[in-house]
Write a structure and sequence with these properties.
By secondary structure, this protein is α/β, with parallel strands linked by helices. 39% of the residues lie in helices and 16% in strands. The chain starts with a strand and ends with a helix. It binds uridine-5'-diphosphate (UDP). The site of uridine-5'-diphosphate has 15 residues, from helix 5 and strand 8.
Length: 328
């Protein structure tokens, strides 16, 4: 049985990856420090002999007993609000955490895939973004802690590949959505759906002309699976190229939820990218991958998920105790 370590296992993407690799017949070791992740996302796996959980911060030395065939490094805060609240931890997990994962991969002879992001392109002046584009990132702005940690992560991963011959894969993930996103993490989709469910106006930042391209989580997981099993060591964009302005997206959520609330406009956060759309030529050619779930289908499933949550979840500011974590 192949053994795989998934860091960030209790998070949105990590938990879906645990499900997928268990389904594919792997033994999954899920690791998470639970600062932004939530055990609720993986509690259905705890009874399985193919699954084990390690409560650990990957920014510190990682020990995993036994053999490891693969590592997926998905531990990181991923919402702009989170990395504003825990900037140092965001930098550490992308840098020190990646270094520890790469060292573990060396020690175990494992292949490693690291989760990078479209944020490495910053506020892009090439559109749509191909992997060859180097980006337009402000290193000292509020998003710099995430963007630069991920850029460092890519550099470190390539260095382990070229210098040590380690088998490495790098995925650049564009905006992804689906069940198990945190309702109160500040990202646009849970923000809008939460507002609709509470009967509040939807908050569009700026004039709503900035664009994003949203990928359904099952499509993303399929792309990760294919990239891991491929032999391509350079970065690959995975995302859905169906681009929409945030203003139009708010209108879609209003229609979907049937809310009679309106859109209100708030200040655009610093360095908020004006446009984002993946060029997925590489994923198509190298992995034979493209997204299958359109936004209407994906949003419907995601809305059903948020509706099924206990009502008190809707009114929690944030159930994450960052302060307690930072003091540790
Ligand atoms: N956004 C918004 N209202 C919200 C939350 C976010 O208009 O309540 C905007 C945000 O300014 C950005 C886009 O939606 O332009 C996507 O934001 P998100 O935080 O989901 O992710 P990003 O792609 O910026 O990392």
């Amino acid at each position: 049985m192949k053994r795989i370590l998934i860091t960030g296992a209790a998070g949105f993407l990590g938990s879906h990856l645990c499900d997928r690799f268990i389904k594919e017949g792997y033994h999954v070791i899920g690791m998470d420090n639970l600062i932004t992740g939530d055990l609720k996302n993986i509690e259905h796996l705890f009874g399985l002999k193919e699954f084990e959980f390690a409560h650990h911060d990957v920014s510190k030395f990682i020990h995993v007993p036994g053999k490891l065939d693969y590592i997926l490094h998905f531990a990181s805060p991923a919402s702009p609000i989170d990395y504003l609240k825990i900037p140092i931890q965001t930098l550490k997990v992308g840098s020190l955490g990646t270094h520890n994962c790469l060292g573990l991969a060396m020690a175990k002879g494992a292949r490693i895939l690291v989760a990078s992001t479209s944020e490495v392109y910053g506020d892009p002046d090439v559109h749509p973004q191909p992997e060859e584009y180097w980006g337009n990132v402000n290193p000292v702005g509020p998003r710099g802690v995430y963007d630069e940690a991920k850029r460092f992560q890519e550099a470190m991963t390539m260095a382990y590949h070229t210098y040590h011959g380690l088998e490495t894969r790098i995925i650049r993930i564009f905006n992804t959505y689906g069940p198990r996103m945190r309702l109160n993490d500040g990202r646009v989709l849970p923000a809008f759906i939460g507002q609709a469910l509470r009967g509040e106006d939807l908050t569009v930042f700026g004039d709503g002309s900035q664009t994003r391209s949203f990928c359904y989580v099952d499509d993303l997981v399929e792309g990760i699976y294919r990239l891991l099993l491929s032999d391509y060591p350079f970065p690959v964009n995975i995302g859905n190229p169906d681009e929409i302005t945030i203003g139009d997206f708010a209108e879609e959520i209003i229609k979907l939820t049937g809310t009679d609330q309106k859109v209100i406009y708030k200040e655009l956060p610093t360095d908020d990218p004006t446009q984002r759309q993946p060029n997925i030529t590489k994923a198509r050619e190298i992995l034979g991958w493209e997204p299958k779930v359109n936004r209407a289908e994906g949003l419907k499933i995601t809305y059903e998920y948020f509706k099924s949550l206990p009502e008190e979840e809707l009114y929690k500011k944030d159930h994450k105790d960052f302060e307690a974590y930072i003091r540790k």
